Amino acid sequence: xxxxxxxxxxxxxxxxxxxxxxxxxxxxxxxxxxxxxxxxxxxxxxxxxxxxxxxxxxxx
Length: 60
Known about the structure:
single chain, alpha+beta
């Protein structure tokens, strides 16, 4: 549907230690697909799940 979107992948996550704890920085799913021809409903069970996994892992 949008071959150029492949340039946004793989997802990249920067994980750093700060005085307050661990910080994970990444571009969220909605921002990744903004400007593409991909609808959120098309990635909510795939790409969006990766975002949820990142958040859950860092929260542990």
